[in-house]
Amino acid sequence: MRTFSFICIALLLVFAGCKKEDTKTPFVGFTSPANFPPPTYSFTGNTVTEPGFLLGKKLFYDGRLSRDGSISCASCHISFSAFSHVDHSVSHGIDDRLGTRNAPAVQNMAWERFFFWDGGVFDLDLFSINPIQNHDEMDDTIPNVIAKLKADPEYVRQFKAAFGTEEVTPTRMFQALSQFMCMLVSNDSKYDKVLKGTASFTSAESLGKTAFEQKCASCHSGILFTDRTFKNNGLSLTADLGRGRVTLNPNDEHCFKVPSLRNIAKTYPYMHDGRFSTLEKVLDHYASGVQNTPTLDTLLKPNGQLGIPLTNDEKANIILFLNTLTDETFIKNPLFAQ
Amino acid sequence: MTVLLCFFLLQACKKEVADANSKLNGNLLLHFDNKAGNNDLTLNADTLKNALGQDFVVSKFNYYISNIQLLNKDGSTYTYPQNESYFLVKESDKTTQEIQLNNIPEGDYEGLRFTIGVDSLKSVSKIADRTGVLDPTDGGADMYWGWNSGYIFLKLEGNSSFAPVLDSSTMERPIEYHIGLFGLNGATNNLKTITIPFNGSVVAVRQNKANIPTVHLFADALKVLSGSSSIDFTIESTILSDKNSINIANNYQHMFSLDYIQY
Protein backbone atom coordinates (compact mmCIF):
# COMPACT_ATOMS: atom_id res chain seq x y z
CA MET A 1 0.00 0.00 0.00
CA ARG A 2 2.81 2.32 0.90
CA THR A 3 4.47 1.62 -2.44
CA PHE A 4 1.21 2.38 -4.23
CA SER A 5 0.89 5.76 -2.49
CA PHE A 6 4.45 6.55 -3.35
CA ILE A 7 3.84 5.82 -7.02
CA CYS A 8 0.73 7.99 -6.95
CA ILE A 9 2.65 10.89 -5.46
CA ALA A 10 5.47 10.39 -7.95
CA LEU A 11 3.02 10.40 -10.85
CA LEU A 12 1.35 13.48 -9.48
CA LEU A 13 4.70 15.24 -9.35
CA VAL A 14 5.49 14.17 -12.90
CA PHE A 15 2.17 15.47 -14.17
CA ALA A 16 2.57 18.67 -12.22
CA GLY A 17 5.95 19.03 -13.90
CA CYS A 18 4.38 18.59 -17.32
CA LYS A 19 1.68 21.12 -16.61
CA LYS A 20 4.21 23.75 -15.69
CA GLU A 21 6.09 23.20 -18.95
CA ASP A 22 2.97 23.76 -21.02
CA THR A 23 3.72 27.44 -21.46
CA LYS A 24 6.90 26.58 -23.40
CA THR A 25 7.04 24.76 -26.73
CA PRO A 26 8.54 21.36 -26.01
CA PHE A 27 11.90 20.75 -27.69
CA VAL A 28 11.59 18.55 -30.73
CA GLY A 29 14.91 16.97 -31.64
CA PHE A 30 16.12 16.36 -35.17
CA THR A 31 13.39 15.24 -37.53
CA SER A 32 13.94 14.54 -41.20
CA PRO A 33 11.24 16.08 -43.42
CA ALA A 34 9.26 13.32 -45.13
CA ASN A 35 10.18 14.55 -48.62
CA PHE A 36 13.93 14.85 -47.89
CA PRO A 37 16.36 12.00 -48.55
CA PRO A 38 17.69 10.13 -45.50
CA PRO A 39 20.23 12.27 -43.61
CA THR A 40 23.89 11.53 -44.23
CA TYR A 41 24.99 12.63 -40.74
CA SER A 42 25.22 9.64 -38.43
CA PHE A 43 23.37 10.46 -35.22
CA THR A 44 24.61 7.22 -33.63
CA GLY A 45 26.41 8.29 -30.49
CA ASN A 46 25.29 11.89 -30.90
CA THR A 47 21.51 12.06 -30.73
CA VAL A 48 20.27 15.64 -30.68
CA THR A 49 19.01 16.55 -27.21
CA GLU A 50 17.84 19.91 -25.92
CA PRO A 51 20.87 20.46 -23.64
CA GLY A 52 23.21 19.30 -26.43
CA PHE A 53 21.56 21.64 -28.92
CA LEU A 54 21.66 24.57 -26.47
CA LEU A 55 25.33 23.92 -25.75
CA GLY A 56 26.05 23.79 -29.48
CA LYS A 57 24.17 27.04 -29.96
CA LYS A 58 26.11 28.74 -27.17
CA LEU A 59 29.38 27.58 -28.74
CA PHE A 60 28.29 28.69 -32.22
CA TYR A 61 27.69 32.23 -30.97
CA ASP A 62 30.72 32.43 -28.67
CA GLY A 63 33.72 34.56 -29.65
CA ARG A 64 35.84 32.66 -27.13
CA LEU A 65 36.32 30.06 -29.84
CA SER A 66 38.75 32.56 -31.40
CA ARG A 67 42.16 33.74 -30.20
CA ASP A 68 41.11 37.23 -29.08
CA GLY A 69 37.41 36.63 -28.51
CA SER A 70 36.40 38.67 -31.53
CA ILE A 71 35.21 36.00 -33.97
CA SER A 72 32.49 33.41 -33.43
CA CYS A 73 31.08 30.92 -35.94
CA ALA A 74 28.15 33.32 -36.25
CA SER A 75 30.45 36.16 -37.34
CA CYS A 76 30.51 34.65 -40.83
CA HIS A 77 27.36 32.53 -40.55
CA ILE A 78 24.59 34.96 -39.66
CA SER A 79 21.06 33.69 -39.07
CA PHE A 80 19.22 36.35 -41.09
CA SER A 81 21.18 35.36 -44.20
CA ALA A 82 20.57 31.63 -43.70
CA PHE A 83 23.82 31.49 -41.72
CA SER A 84 25.96 32.88 -44.52
CA HIS A 85 27.83 36.20 -44.74
CA VAL A 86 26.04 38.63 -47.04
CA ASP A 87 28.03 41.22 -48.93
CA HIS A 88 31.35 39.56 -48.16
CA SER A 89 32.95 37.87 -51.13
CA VAL A 90 35.37 35.89 -48.97
CA SER A 91 35.31 35.29 -45.24
CA HIS A 92 36.57 38.05 -42.93
CA GLY A 93 38.37 36.62 -39.94
CA ILE A 94 40.47 37.72 -37.02
CA ASP A 95 42.54 40.95 -37.28
CA ASP A 96 40.55 41.75 -40.46
CA ARG A 97 42.32 38.98 -42.29
CA LEU A 98 40.70 37.64 -45.44
CA GLY A 99 40.08 34.00 -46.30
CA THR A 100 40.04 32.66 -49.84
CA ARG A 101 36.47 31.40 -50.13
CA ASN A 102 32.91 32.62 -49.62
CA ALA A 103 31.28 31.59 -46.35
CA PRO A 104 28.43 29.30 -47.40
CA ALA A 105 25.00 28.96 -45.77
CA VAL A 106 24.82 26.64 -42.78
CA GLN A 107 21.53 24.89 -43.45
CA ASN A 108 20.36 21.31 -43.93
CA MET A 109 23.81 20.20 -42.79
CA ALA A 110 22.52 16.74 -41.88
CA TRP A 111 22.24 16.02 -45.62
CA GLU A 112 25.67 17.28 -46.67
CA ARG A 113 28.05 14.57 -47.81
CA PHE A 114 31.08 16.86 -47.87
CA PHE A 115 31.98 20.18 -46.30
CA PHE A 116 33.88 23.16 -47.71
CA TRP A 117 33.67 24.21 -51.34
CA ASP A 118 36.25 21.52 -52.12
CA GLY A 119 34.63 18.83 -49.96
CA GLY A 120 37.83 18.20 -48.00
CA VAL A 121 35.90 17.29 -44.85
CA PHE A 122 33.50 14.33 -44.91
CA ASP A 123 32.06 14.45 -41.40
CA LEU A 124 30.41 17.45 -39.76
CA ASP A 125 32.05 16.52 -36.44
CA LEU A 126 35.46 16.97 -38.09
CA PHE A 127 34.59 20.34 -39.59
CA SER A 128 34.87 22.87 -36.78
CA ILE A 129 38.51 22.13 -35.98
CA ASN A 130 39.28 24.05 -39.19
CA PRO A 131 37.84 27.55 -38.66
CA ILE A 132 38.93 27.51 -35.01
CA GLN A 133 42.55 26.78 -35.90
CA ASN A 134 42.68 28.61 -39.24
CA HIS A 135 45.15 31.49 -39.06
CA ASP A 136 42.88 33.79 -41.07
CA GLU A 137 39.63 32.85 -39.35
CA MET A 138 39.61 32.24 -35.57
CA ASP A 139 43.33 31.53 -35.09
CA ASP A 140 43.15 29.67 -31.79
CA THR A 141 44.07 26.11 -30.80
CA ILE A 142 41.62 23.47 -29.65
CA PRO A 143 43.42 22.88 -26.30
CA ASN A 144 43.33 26.63 -25.64
CA VAL A 145 39.64 26.90 -26.46
CA ILE A 146 38.87 23.93 -24.21
CA ALA A 147 40.82 25.58 -21.37
CA LYS A 148 38.70 28.73 -21.79
CA LEU A 149 35.48 26.72 -21.71
CA LYS A 150 36.59 24.75 -18.65
CA ALA A 151 37.18 27.99 -16.77
CA ASP A 152 33.53 28.99 -17.21
CA PRO A 153 31.22 27.24 -14.70
CA GLU A 154 28.23 27.80 -16.98
CA TYR A 155 29.92 25.79 -19.73
CA VAL A 156 30.83 23.04 -17.27
CA ARG A 157 27.17 22.92 -16.22
CA GLN A 158 25.99 22.76 -19.83
CA PHE A 159 28.50 20.06 -20.80
CA LYS A 160 27.20 18.01 -17.88
CA ALA A 161 23.59 18.61 -18.90
CA ALA A 162 24.38 17.60 -22.47
CA PHE A 163 26.73 14.66 -21.95
CA GLY A 164 26.13 13.43 -18.38
CA THR A 165 29.41 14.44 -16.78
CA GLU A 166 31.30 17.70 -16.35
CA GLU A 167 34.13 16.73 -18.70
CA VAL A 168 34.75 19.45 -21.27
CA THR A 169 36.42 17.69 -24.21
CA PRO A 170 37.05 18.58 -27.86
CA THR A 171 34.93 15.61 -28.98
CA ARG A 172 31.96 16.84 -26.96
CA MET A 173 32.43 20.40 -28.21
CA PHE A 174 32.39 19.20 -31.83
CA GLN A 175 29.42 16.93 -31.19
CA ALA A 176 27.43 19.76 -29.59
CA LEU A 177 28.23 22.04 -32.53
CA SER A 178 27.02 19.29 -34.86
CA GLN A 179 23.80 18.97 -32.85
CA PHE A 180 23.13 22.68 -33.29
CA MET A 181 24.04 22.69 -36.99
CA CYS A 182 21.99 19.57 -37.76
CA MET A 183 18.95 21.29 -36.28
CA LEU A 184 19.25 24.08 -38.87
CA VAL A 185 16.72 22.55 -41.23
CA SER A 186 15.18 24.76 -43.88
CA ASN A 187 12.04 23.28 -45.40
CA ASP A 188 9.34 25.92 -45.02
CA SER A 189 9.91 28.21 -47.99
CA LYS A 190 7.09 29.23 -50.31
CA TYR A 191 8.27 26.42 -52.57
CA ASP A 192 7.73 23.93 -49.74
CA LYS A 193 4.33 25.46 -48.98
CA VAL A 194 3.31 25.03 -52.61
CA LEU A 195 4.36 21.37 -52.39
CA LYS A 196 2.21 21.02 -49.27
CA GLY A 197 -0.69 22.74 -51.01
CA THR A 198 -0.83 25.69 -48.64
CA ALA A 199 0.41 28.29 -51.12
CA SER A 200 0.54 28.73 -54.88
CA PHE A 201 3.04 30.20 -57.33
CA THR A 202 2.31 33.35 -59.31
CA SER A 203 2.27 32.79 -63.04
CA ALA A 204 5.75 34.30 -63.38
CA GLU A 205 7.07 32.02 -60.62
CA SER A 206 5.51 29.05 -62.43
CA LEU A 207 7.21 30.05 -65.67
CA GLY A 208 10.43 30.44 -63.71
CA LYS A 209 10.00 26.97 -62.23
CA THR A 210 9.56 25.46 -65.70
CA ALA A 211 12.63 27.28 -67.03
CA PHE A 212 14.61 26.30 -63.92
CA GLU A 213 13.71 22.65 -64.37
CA GLN A 214 14.81 22.77 -68.01
CA LYS A 215 17.98 24.80 -67.60
CA CYS A 216 19.28 24.48 -64.03
CA ALA A 217 17.92 21.34 -62.37
CA SER A 218 20.41 18.89 -63.91
CA CYS A 219 22.87 20.04 -61.26
CA HIS A 220 20.61 21.84 -58.78
CA SER A 221 18.39 18.81 -58.53
CA GLY A 222 15.95 17.32 -56.06
CA ILE A 223 14.42 18.68 -52.90
CA LEU A 224 17.83 19.98 -51.73
CA PHE A 225 18.48 21.72 -55.06
CA THR A 226 21.89 20.15 -55.48
CA ASP A 227 23.16 16.88 -56.91
CA ARG A 228 25.85 17.03 -54.18
CA THR A 229 28.71 16.71 -56.68
CA PHE A 230 31.64 18.96 -57.62
CA LYS A 231 31.77 20.71 -60.98
CA ASN A 232 33.63 23.29 -62.98
CA ASN A 233 30.85 25.71 -63.91
CA GLY A 234 32.83 27.77 -66.38
CA LEU A 235 34.24 30.53 -64.19
CA SER A 236 37.45 32.18 -65.33
CA LEU A 237 40.19 30.28 -63.55
CA THR A 238 42.04 31.34 -60.43
CA ALA A 239 44.85 29.56 -58.57
CA ASP A 240 42.25 27.74 -56.46
CA LEU A 241 42.15 24.11 -57.65
CA GLY A 242 39.04 23.34 -55.59
CA ARG A 243 38.17 19.66 -55.49
CA GLY A 244 41.40 18.87 -57.34
CA ARG A 245 43.38 20.00 -54.31
CA VAL A 246 41.65 17.33 -52.26
CA THR A 247 41.58 14.35 -54.62
CA LEU A 248 44.74 15.24 -56.63
CA ASN A 249 42.75 14.09 -59.65
CA PRO A 250 43.38 16.44 -62.64
CA ASN A 251 39.75 15.96 -63.70
CA ASP A 252 38.66 17.55 -60.42
CA GLU A 253 40.77 20.68 -60.81
CA HIS A 254 38.76 23.90 -60.57
CA CYS A 255 35.66 21.92 -59.60
CA PHE A 256 33.67 23.19 -56.63
CA LYS A 257 30.68 21.94 -54.70
CA VAL A 258 27.31 22.40 -56.38
CA PRO A 259 25.59 24.37 -53.63
CA SER A 260 21.99 24.02 -52.55
CA LEU A 261 19.85 26.89 -53.82
CA ARG A 262 17.64 27.01 -50.75
CA ASN A 263 17.62 30.58 -49.40
CA ILE A 264 19.78 31.58 -52.36
CA ALA A 265 18.32 35.10 -52.50
CA LYS A 266 19.60 35.64 -48.95
CA THR A 267 23.12 34.34 -49.39
CA TYR A 268 24.73 36.78 -51.84
CA PRO A 269 27.39 37.14 -53.11
CA TYR A 270 27.72 33.94 -55.14
CA MET A 271 30.26 31.32 -56.26
CA HIS A 272 33.09 29.82 -54.19
CA ASP A 273 34.90 33.15 -54.17
CA GLY A 274 31.83 35.37 -54.02
CA ARG A 275 32.67 36.98 -57.36
CA PHE A 276 29.05 37.64 -58.41
CA SER A 277 27.09 40.09 -56.27
CA THR A 278 23.61 39.33 -57.64
CA LEU A 279 21.59 36.46 -59.06
CA GLU A 280 21.28 38.46 -62.29
CA LYS A 281 25.06 38.31 -62.67
CA VAL A 282 25.01 34.57 -61.95
CA LEU A 283 22.47 33.94 -64.70
CA ASP A 284 24.36 36.25 -67.08
CA HIS A 285 27.41 34.09 -66.41
CA TYR A 286 25.59 30.88 -67.31
CA ALA A 287 24.00 32.49 -70.38
CA SER A 288 27.02 34.24 -71.83
CA GLY A 289 30.04 34.15 -69.53
CA VAL A 290 31.01 30.48 -69.43
CA GLN A 291 34.72 29.95 -70.10
CA ASN A 292 35.87 26.83 -71.92
CA THR A 293 38.48 25.47 -69.55
CA PRO A 294 39.82 21.89 -69.55
CA THR A 295 37.57 20.52 -66.78
CA LEU A 296 34.43 22.46 -67.75
CA ASP A 297 31.35 20.36 -67.02
CA THR A 298 29.95 18.81 -70.21
CA LEU A 299 26.46 20.08 -69.35
CA LEU A 300 27.79 23.58 -69.94
CA LYS A 301 28.90 22.90 -73.50
CA PRO A 302 26.00 21.09 -75.11
CA ASN A 303 26.62 20.56 -78.86
CA GLY A 304 29.83 22.55 -78.60
CA GLN A 305 27.94 25.72 -77.58
CA LEU A 306 29.21 27.29 -74.37
CA GLY A 307 26.75 27.98 -71.57
CA ILE A 308 23.01 27.70 -71.14
CA PRO A 309 20.85 29.74 -73.52
CA LEU A 310 18.57 31.97 -71.43
CA THR A 311 16.29 34.78 -72.61
CA ASN A 312 15.89 37.89 -70.47
CA ASP A 313 12.35 36.79 -69.59
CA GLU A 314 13.60 33.37 -68.54
CA LYS A 315 16.27 34.94 -66.35
CA ALA A 316 13.75 37.22 -64.66
CA ASN A 317 11.31 34.38 -64.07
CA ILE A 318 13.99 32.03 -62.77
CA ILE A 319 14.99 34.66 -60.23
CA LEU A 320 11.37 35.02 -59.15
CA PHE A 321 11.25 31.25 -58.73
CA LEU A 322 14.52 31.23 -56.77
CA ASN A 323 13.01 33.82 -54.44
CA THR A 324 10.36 31.24 -53.49
CA LEU A 325 13.18 29.17 -51.94
CA THR A 326 13.62 31.77 -49.22
CA ASP A 327 12.50 30.30 -45.92
CA GLU A 328 11.50 33.10 -43.54
CA THR A 329 10.43 30.60 -40.87
CA PHE A 330 13.98 29.24 -40.82
CA ILE A 331 15.76 32.57 -41.05
CA LYS A 332 13.68 34.14 -38.27
CA ASN A 333 13.42 31.09 -36.03
CA PRO A 334 14.15 32.36 -32.49
CA LEU A 335 15.33 28.87 -31.56
CA PHE A 336 18.34 29.36 -33.86
CA ALA A 337 18.97 33.11 -33.52
CA GLN A 338 21.29 34.58 -30.94
CA MET B 1 14.96 -16.65 -6.71
CA THR B 2 17.81 -14.33 -5.76
CA VAL B 3 19.94 -17.33 -4.80
CA LEU B 4 19.22 -18.97 -8.12
CA LEU B 5 20.21 -15.82 -10.00
CA CYS B 6 23.49 -15.56 -8.08
CA PHE B 7 24.18 -19.19 -8.89
CA PHE B 8 23.77 -18.55 -12.59
CA LEU B 9 25.95 -15.48 -12.44
CA LEU B 10 28.68 -17.42 -10.68
CA GLN B 11 28.45 -20.18 -13.25
CA ALA B 12 28.82 -17.62 -16.00
CA CYS B 13 31.93 -16.15 -14.38
CA LYS B 14 33.47 -19.54 -13.91
CA LYS B 15 33.04 -20.40 -17.56
CA GLU B 16 34.71 -17.21 -18.75
CA VAL B 17 37.77 -17.76 -16.58
CA ALA B 18 38.09 -21.27 -17.89
CA ASP B 19 37.98 -20.04 -21.50
CA ALA B 20 40.64 -17.40 -20.93
CA ASN B 21 42.89 -20.01 -19.42
CA SER B 22 42.51 -22.39 -22.27
CA LYS B 23 44.79 -20.19 -24.40
CA LEU B 24 48.23 -19.19 -23.19
CA ASN B 25 49.34 -15.68 -24.01
CA GLY B 26 52.63 -13.86 -23.93
CA ASN B 27 54.01 -10.42 -24.71
CA LEU B 28 56.29 -9.00 -27.35
CA LEU B 29 58.16 -5.72 -27.75
CA LEU B 30 58.78 -3.95 -31.03
CA HIS B 31 61.60 -1.45 -30.99
CA PHE B 32 61.94 1.12 -33.76
CA ASP B 33 65.46 2.42 -34.13
CA ASN B 34 65.54 5.35 -36.53
CA LYS B 35 68.79 5.71 -38.38
CA ALA B 36 70.33 7.56 -41.31
CA GLY B 37 72.20 5.04 -43.44
CA ASN B 38 74.61 3.30 -41.13
CA ASN B 39 74.44 5.93 -38.41
CA ASP B 40 71.92 6.66 -35.72
CA LEU B 41 69.50 9.42 -36.70
CA THR B 42 69.98 12.64 -34.75
CA LEU B 43 67.67 15.65 -34.75
CA ASN B 44 69.08 19.11 -35.47
CA ALA B 45 72.62 17.74 -35.34
CA ASP B 46 74.34 15.55 -37.92
CA THR B 47 74.53 16.76 -41.49
CA LEU B 48 73.30 14.04 -43.83
CA LYS B 49 73.49 13.62 -47.59
CA ASN B 50 70.65 12.54 -49.86
CA ALA B 51 71.22 10.25 -52.85
CA LEU B 52 72.14 13.29 -54.98
CA GLY B 53 74.80 14.32 -52.45
CA GLN B 54 72.81 17.31 -51.22
CA ASP B 55 73.30 18.07 -47.54
CA PHE B 56 70.43 18.22 -45.06
CA VAL B 57 69.68 18.15 -41.35
CA VAL B 58 66.57 16.44 -39.95
CA SER B 59 64.50 18.27 -37.32
CA LYS B 60 61.47 15.97 -37.17
CA PHE B 61 60.78 12.36 -38.07
CA ASN B 62 57.40 10.84 -37.16
CA TYR B 63 55.34 7.99 -38.57
CA TYR B 64 52.27 5.93 -37.78
CA ILE B 65 52.40 2.15 -37.51
CA SER B 66 49.05 0.34 -37.51
CA ASN B 67 47.31 -3.00 -38.07
CA ILE B 68 50.12 -5.13 -36.72
CA GLN B 69 50.08 -8.79 -37.66
CA LEU B 70 52.42 -11.57 -36.58
CA LEU B 71 53.19 -14.40 -38.96
CA ASN B 72 53.27 -17.75 -37.20
CA LYS B 73 55.69 -20.44 -38.33
CA ASP B 74 52.70 -22.79 -38.69
CA GLY B 75 51.38 -20.60 -41.50
CA SER B 76 48.69 -18.84 -39.45
CA THR B 77 48.53 -15.10 -38.87
CA TYR B 78 47.78 -13.37 -35.61
CA THR B 79 46.17 -9.94 -35.95
CA TYR B 80 46.70 -7.67 -32.98
CA PRO B 81 43.32 -6.25 -31.75
CA GLN B 82 42.40 -3.58 -34.28
CA ASN B 83 41.55 -0.79 -31.82
CA GLU B 84 44.81 -1.16 -29.90
CA SER B 85 46.92 -1.34 -33.03
CA TYR B 86 47.71 2.34 -33.71
CA PHE B 87 51.09 3.74 -32.76
CA LEU B 88 52.87 6.99 -33.50
CA VAL B 89 56.65 6.67 -33.51
CA LYS B 90 58.52 9.95 -33.00
CA GLU B 91 62.27 10.38 -33.17
CA SER B 92 61.94 13.15 -30.57
CA ASP B 93 60.32 10.86 -27.97
CA LYS B 94 62.10 7.64 -26.97
CA THR B 95 59.02 6.27 -25.22
CA THR B 96 57.18 6.11 -28.56
CA GLN B 97 59.90 4.00 -30.15
CA GLU B 98 59.05 0.92 -28.12
CA ILE B 99 55.69 -0.75 -28.68
CA GLN B 100 54.58 -3.46 -26.29
CA LEU B 101 52.14 -5.99 -27.68
CA ASN B 102 50.25 -7.81 -24.93
CA ASN B 103 48.26 -11.05 -24.78
CA ILE B 104 49.67 -12.54 -27.93
CA PRO B 105 48.93 -16.25 -28.36
CA GLU B 106 51.94 -18.43 -27.62
CA GLY B 107 53.75 -19.37 -30.78
CA ASP B 108 56.87 -19.18 -32.88
CA TYR B 109 56.63 -16.14 -35.09
CA GLU B 110 58.80 -15.77 -38.16
CA GLY B 111 57.70 -12.39 -39.47
CA LEU B 112 55.80 -9.19 -38.93
CA ARG B 113 53.34 -7.21 -41.06
CA PHE B 114 52.05 -3.68 -40.49
CA THR B 115 50.65 -0.66 -42.23
CA ILE B 116 52.62 2.56 -42.44
CA GLY B 117 49.94 5.14 -41.74
CA VAL B 118 46.35 4.94 -40.56
CA ASP B 119 44.08 2.59 -42.50
CA SER B 120 41.11 3.95 -44.42
CA LEU B 121 38.48 2.57 -42.04
CA LYS B 122 39.99 4.34 -39.04
CA SER B 123 40.57 7.42 -41.17
CA VAL B 124 36.81 7.82 -41.61
CA SER B 125 35.80 6.84 -38.07
CA LYS B 126 33.66 9.03 -35.83
CA ILE B 127 35.46 11.61 -33.70
CA ALA B 128 34.66 9.78 -30.46
CA ASP B 129 36.65 6.79 -31.75
CA ARG B 130 39.75 8.89 -32.43
CA THR B 131 41.59 8.68 -29.14
CA GLY B 132 45.22 8.75 -28.02
CA VAL B 133 47.62 9.15 -30.93
CA LEU B 134 44.62 9.41 -33.27
CA ASP B 135 43.05 12.39 -31.47
CA PRO B 136 43.25 15.22 -34.01
CA THR B 137 43.13 17.76 -31.19
CA ASP B 138 45.75 16.13 -28.98
CA GLY B 139 47.96 13.06 -29.55
CA GLY B 140 47.60 13.23 -33.33
CA ALA B 141 47.30 17.01 -33.69
CA ASP B 142 50.66 17.33 -35.44
CA MET B 143 49.86 14.44 -37.78
CA TYR B 144 46.44 15.48 -39.06
CA TRP B 145 45.08 17.55 -41.93
CA GLY B 146 41.88 19.25 -40.85
CA TRP B 147 41.11 20.78 -44.25
CA ASN B 148 41.38 17.42 -46.01
CA SER B 149 40.27 15.17 -43.15
CA GLY B 150 43.01 12.61 -42.81
CA TYR B 151 46.15 11.63 -40.99
CA ILE B 152 49.66 12.43 -42.09
CA PHE B 153 51.25 8.98 -42.20
CA LEU B 154 54.84 10.17 -42.15
CA LYS B 155 56.51 13.48 -41.51
CA LEU B 156 60.13 14.29 -42.29
CA GLU B 157 61.22 17.87 -41.75
CA GLY B 158 64.53 19.66 -41.70
CA ASN B 159 66.57 22.03 -43.80
CA SER B 160 69.05 21.90 -46.63
CA SER B 161 71.35 24.47 -48.21
CA PHE B 162 70.02 23.20 -51.56
CA ALA B 163 66.39 24.03 -50.73
CA PRO B 164 65.01 27.42 -51.80
CA VAL B 165 64.43 30.18 -49.27
CA LEU B 166 60.73 30.14 -48.40
CA ASP B 167 60.62 33.15 -46.12
CA SER B 168 63.04 35.97 -46.85
CA SER B 169 62.72 37.33 -43.30
CA THR B 170 64.30 34.20 -41.79
CA MET B 171 66.38 33.08 -44.79
CA GLU B 172 65.59 29.51 -43.78
CA ARG B 173 65.74 26.77 -46.37
CA PRO B 174 63.29 24.21 -45.06
CA ILE B 175 62.56 20.74 -46.39
CA GLU B 176 59.13 19.33 -45.55
CA TYR B 177 57.66 15.96 -46.45
CA HIS B 178 54.18 15.34 -45.05
CA ILE B 179 52.75 12.21 -46.59
CA GLY B 180 49.13 11.11 -46.14
CA LEU B 181 46.00 10.37 -48.26
CA PHE B 182 44.07 7.13 -47.88
CA GLY B 183 42.20 6.93 -51.17
CA LEU B 184 38.82 8.36 -50.19
CA ASN B 185 36.52 8.77 -53.23
CA GLY B 186 39.20 7.98 -55.74
CA ALA B 187 41.83 10.24 -54.17
CA THR B 188 45.46 9.17 -54.10
CA ASN B 189 46.11 6.26 -51.73
CA ASN B 190 49.50 6.29 -50.02
CA LEU B 191 48.78 3.51 -47.52
CA LYS B 192 51.53 0.90 -47.53
CA THR B 193 51.38 -2.46 -45.80
CA ILE B 194 54.75 -4.12 -45.48
CA THR B 195 56.04 -7.50 -44.36
CA ILE B 196 59.29 -7.94 -42.49
CA PRO B 197 60.52 -11.55 -42.39
CA PHE B 198 62.75 -12.45 -39.47
CA ASN B 199 65.23 -13.97 -41.91
CA GLY B 200 64.99 -17.52 -40.69
CA SER B 201 64.88 -16.78 -36.98
CA VAL B 202 61.76 -17.07 -34.92
CA VAL B 203 60.44 -15.13 -31.97
CA ALA B 204 59.14 -17.54 -29.37
CA VAL B 205 56.25 -15.90 -27.54
CA ARG B 206 55.54 -17.77 -24.32
CA GLN B 207 53.51 -17.11 -21.22
CA ASN B 208 55.38 -16.19 -18.03
CA LYS B 209 58.60 -15.56 -19.83
CA ALA B 210 60.97 -13.65 -17.57
CA ASN B 211 62.30 -11.60 -20.46
CA ILE B 212 59.85 -10.37 -23.05
CA PRO B 213 61.40 -10.87 -26.48
CA THR B 214 62.13 -7.70 -28.43
CA VAL B 215 62.13 -7.34 -32.21
CA HIS B 216 64.55 -4.54 -33.03
CA LEU B 217 63.70 -2.81 -36.29
CA PHE B 218 65.60 -0.19 -38.22
CA ALA B 219 63.86 2.70 -39.98
CA ASP B 220 66.27 4.43 -42.32
CA ALA B 221 65.28 8.08 -42.82
CA LEU B 222 67.58 8.37 -45.86
CA LYS B 223 65.34 5.87 -47.66
CA VAL B 224 62.41 8.33 -47.46
CA LEU B 225 64.31 10.41 -49.99
CA SER B 226 65.77 7.69 -52.17
CA GLY B 227 64.89 4.39 -53.78
CA SER B 228 62.49 4.47 -56.71
CA SER B 229 62.69 8.30 -56.66
CA SER B 230 65.71 10.35 -55.66
CA ILE B 231 64.38 13.54 -54.14
CA ASP B 232 66.13 16.71 -55.33
CA PHE B 233 65.93 19.44 -52.68
CA THR B 234 66.31 22.17 -55.28
CA ILE B 235 62.96 21.30 -56.89
CA GLU B 236 61.12 19.13 -54.36
CA SER B 237 61.93 20.71 -51.00
CA THR B 238 58.28 20.51 -49.97
CA ILE B 239 55.98 17.59 -50.74
CA LEU B 240 52.68 17.66 -48.88
CA SER B 241 49.26 16.72 -50.19
CA ASP B 242 50.29 16.47 -53.82
CA LYS B 243 50.91 13.86 -56.51
CA ASN B 244 54.61 13.62 -55.71
CA SER B 245 53.66 12.20 -52.32
CA ILE B 246 53.27 8.87 -54.17
CA ASN B 247 57.03 8.86 -54.86
CA ILE B 248 57.88 9.41 -51.21
CA ALA B 249 55.48 6.69 -50.06
CA ASN B 250 56.98 4.30 -52.62
CA ASN B 251 60.39 5.14 -51.19
CA TYR B 252 59.63 4.82 -47.50
CA GLN B 253 57.86 1.49 -47.77
CA HIS B 254 61.37 0.06 -48.02
CA MET B 255 62.87 1.94 -45.09
CA PHE B 256 62.17 -0.75 -42.46
CA SER B 257 64.42 -3.72 -41.86
CA LEU B 258 65.12 -6.22 -39.12
CA ASP B 259 68.05 -5.40 -36.89
CA TYR B 260 68.02 -8.32 -34.44
CA ILE B 261 65.85 -10.25 -32.06
CA GLN B 262 66.62 -9.98 -28.38
CA TYR B 263 65.54 -12.27 -25.58
How is this structure best described in words?
- The complex is a heterodimer of chains A (338) and B (263).
- Chain A is mostly helical and 338 residues long.
- Chain A folds into 2 domains: 50-185, Cytochrome Bc1 Complex, Chain D, domain 2; 190-329, Cytochrome c-like domain (Cytochrome Bc1 Complex, Chain D, domain 2), CATH 1.10.760.
- Chain A is 37% helix and 1% strand.
- Chain A has 13 helices and 2 strands.
- Chain A has a two-stranded antiparallel ribbon.
- In chain A, α2 (50-60) packs antiparallel against α6 (153-163), α2 crosses α7 and α9 crosses α12 (312-323).
- In chain B, strands 3, 4, 5, 6, 8, 9, 10, 11, 12, 13 and 15 form an 11-stranded mixed sheet that branches.
- In chain B, β9 and β10 form a beta hairpin.
- Residues 1-22 of chain B have low confidence and may be disordered.
- At the A-B interface, α4, α5, α7 and α10 of A face loops of B.
- The termini of chain A sit apart by 51 Å
Uncertain runs of chain B with pLDDT below 50, 5 residues or more? 1-22
Task: Determine the strand fraction of chain A and express it as a percent band.
Answer: under 5%
For CATH, the homologous superfamily of the largest domain in chain A is named as Cytochrome c-like domain
Biggest sheet details of chain A: 2 strands, antiparallel
Tell me the number of structural domains of chain A: 2
Overall helicity of chain B: 10-25%
- Which regions of chain A have little confidence, pLDDT < 50, spanning 5+ residues? 8-21
- State Rg of chain A: 23 Å
Say what the CATH topology of the largest domain in chain A is: Cytochrome Bc1 Complex, Chain D, domain 2
The residue fraction in helices of chain A comes out at 25-40%
User: How many strands appear in the DSSP assignment of chain B?
Assistant: 16
SSE string of chain A: HHHHHHHHHEHEHHH
